[in-house]
Amino acid sequence: MDLHISTAAPTAAERDTIDAAFALLAPTAADATAGDRPTRSAHAGHAARSRRHLLLPLLHAVHDAAGWLSEGSLNHVARTLQVPPAEVYGVATFYAMFSVEPRAPRVVHVCDDVACGPSGGEEIVAALERDLDGGRACVVRSPCLGLCERAPAVLHQRAGEPDLSQAPATPPAVLAAAHAPADPAGEQAAEADRAFADTTVSAPQTRTGEHLRLLRRVGVVDPTSLDDYRARGGYAALRRAVRLGATRVIAELKDASLTGRGGAAFPTGVKWEGVAQSPERPHHLVCNADESEPGTFKDRVLMEGDPFGLVEAMTIAGYVTGATVGHLYVRGEYPLATRRLQDAIAAARARGHLGDDVMGEGFAFDIDLRRGAGAYICGEETALLESIEGYRGEPRNKPPFPAASGLFGKPTAINNVETLYNVLEVLNIGGGAFAAVGGGRSTGSKLFCVSGAVGAPGVYEVDFGTTLRELLDLAGGTRGTLRTVLLGGAAGGFVLPQDLDVPLTLEGARDIGATLGSGVVLVFDDRADLTGTLRRIAAFFRDESCGQCVPCRVGTVRQEEALARLERGAPLGSRETELALLDDLARVMRDASICGLGQTAPSAVASALDLGLIAAPSHSSNGHGGRR
Length: 628
What we know:
Pfam families: 2Fe-2S_thioredx, Complex1_51K, NADH_4Fe-4S, SLBB
Radius of gyration: 24 Å
Number of helices: 27
Shape: globular
Low-confidence stretches: 1-5, 616-628
Helix content: 40-55%
Family: Belongs to the complex I 51 kDa subunit family.
Domain NADH-ubiquinone oxidoreductase 51kDa subunit iron-sulphur binding: 531-576
Keywords: 4Fe-4S, Iron, Iron-sulfur, Metal-binding
Structural class: alpha/beta
Largest sheet: 5 strands, mixed
Protein name: NAD(P)H-dependent oxidoreductase subunit E
Distance between the termini: 52 Å
């Protein structure tokens, strides 16, 4: 991109694509952005600011069609939305799934992250680099694609054709898909979706349906049928919510002690009450479905297998908080989940389950689905808001918190996918019955993403308080000799075999210096290369840092460099010096980073040091609850 973008013209196809997408989206633009954010500079007046949130959908539209974003297309988007070209370029280059340089029309994203890399991902990369036709398709190394239970995983991003996933993938199957004839009608994608869906319920527990609440419909209900969903109890929770009224629903959530399942564990009832009682209007609802934590895939399974459940849960949340629009932000790497949700939203809208008078109950609510484009940081709630508004996904300073000043500067309730499905269960059985499962701040059931060296990787639903040992037994036990378990994902920490009897609760994890985080349980046996795993985690955070603050922007780079030197056996000075550097970096990032990404980027490394999984410096303090 040179400095003369203002003179570049789009092709006729690019112009038509952008104009058609804008014509489809523009009628709802003003309603969605009611109220301007006073902290933003005013470019081209109120009308332009009301269009800014269409930037990401327009970039998706042209990128989907052309396979990349040319100078001319970016310039036409800038003119259409009346946004400065430099800002359009800044947003386009923020996301990993967008390219501003010409490239092959088919891009094969191969996961080489902590679960897929050692399980065949590296072999697929090597085969594609050797045999792929570079003119028609190219290969790109990818962070976690959220398909860890079916490792190794591949995502095909294809210009003018629907994206599709392959998992478990093999080099011949990936090459065949990359070289298959053009598929503009989506027939290959539909066939891949059917094959994928046949095995998407990978855990034996979810096949039996025993003792399941959140997963009870997954693998049982037809995810494309609203009638089947209703026949299996769908929309009973919404009816009960309306019968109880918003105030009583909030009371039920408080009685249930339901906490957020995205990692922060904030009380859901308190969050909803703060938004519902705010006198400022309009209110907004956001569902954070940008599940990008390495090792996490529970939300994907829910969205693919029970999409109407999320539509119903969001409708309840909108009713209770007074929001008339729900913004569903889905991870860009989840093509099947996206298609399922789009179809579910359309079906619900057609039957009056969304719209101006939901199910004849006298309230309005609709859902606006937004696709992410490859940015882990957008899982942070304020970065996600920035992305929806059409800006780079950089976290905001807090306070103010979103419940007071969130999307477009208005009161906003933000909930994780799993949290919203739990709302259905609270309304089905009552807050008191929900609180009777587990205890303390850990009530109800919890989804865990079990992968790595276990007999049956998959999503498992257990009651809070189940031990880690019981969970691993449910997943078929450990393959080989257990060395350690990464609990909570790349932003979590390691636990040792002697910790297997810890109860899986917020309190139990804290007592051993760990965290449940997003529910990742990644198992390593004695053959695992832990130093290489830590370096891959560090490289992930280096790549995903938004760069806004120095401790994270620089610290993640230095952390990855130190681990790479240790992996090569070429430390600067001595091994102890490198480990001391890692310890110091962890302190700085934890204490001085703006958001959770920088604060937790050193967690896994620091945990490994603390537990002696790699030799620790003699002066290193214990930052994980006195476990050494």
